[in-house]
Amino acid sequence: MTETVQPAFDGMPEPETPAARPRSEDYETWIAAVRPAFEAAAATGRTFTTFEIADANRLPDPPRPQAHWGRLMTLLKDEGWIRTVSWACSDRPTAHHSGVRTWRGTRAAQQGRAA
Fold first, then answer.
1. What is the CB neighbour count within 10 angstroms for residue 25?
2. Reported pTM
3. 27-110: CATH architecture
4. CB 3.0 to 4.6 Å from 108: which of 12, 22, 97, 114, for a disulfide?
5. How far apart are CA 27 and CA 46, in angstroms?
6. Contact call for residues 72 and 34 (beta carbons, < 8 A)
7. How does residue 12 score in pLDDT terms, banded at 50, 70 and 90?
8. Rg of the chain, C-alpha, whole Å
9. Above 50 in pLDDT, residue 97?
10. Measured between alpha carbons, how far is 41 from 59 in angstroms, rounded to an integer?
11. In whole angstroms, what is the distance from residue 57 CA to residue 18 CA?
C-alpha cells in the first residue's frame, strides 16, 4: 500500500516541523545551562517530567542524551531539589509514550532552602 501525500495549495500554511534542539559539547557547560530551569520548576511544587521542562524552556540536549538527562535528575534528587512522585507516559515525540518518572520539588526547594 502506498502512502498518499496531501498536496499543498496556495495560501495553506506550511506544516510545522519540530526544530532540532542544539547539543552541548561538554557536560559541565550543559549542566550550567539547564540547571536553573529545573531548579525553578522544583520551586513551583508542581509535578513534571524531564521532557516537559526541557521542551518548555527549549533547553539544549547534553553531549550524551541517553545518559545525561537521567544523571541530571539524580543529581538534583541527591541535592534535595526534587523527589520522585510517580510514572507517566512521555510526551517526547521519539519516546513512543514510554513510561518516564515524574518529579516534584521538595519542600526545601519550594522554600528556597535546597542545596
1. 10
2. 0.75
3. Orthogonal Bundle (1.10)
4. 114
5. 27
6. yes
7. low
8. 18
9. yes
10. 13
11. 15
Q: Spell out the residues 6+ positions from residue 52 whose beta carbon is closer than 8 angstroms to its own.
A: 91
Half-sphere exposure of 18 (CA within 13 A, CB side): 8
Query: Cell 517526547 sits at which residue?
Result: 92
Could you write out the DSSP letters of every residue in the chain? Answer: -PPP-PPPPTTPPPPP-PPPPPB-SSHHHHHHHHHHHHHHHHHHT-EE-HHHHHHHTTPPBPSSHHHHHHHHHHHHHHTTSEEEEEEEE---GGGTT-EEEEEEE-HHHHTT---
In single-letter form, the type of residue at position 15 comes to P
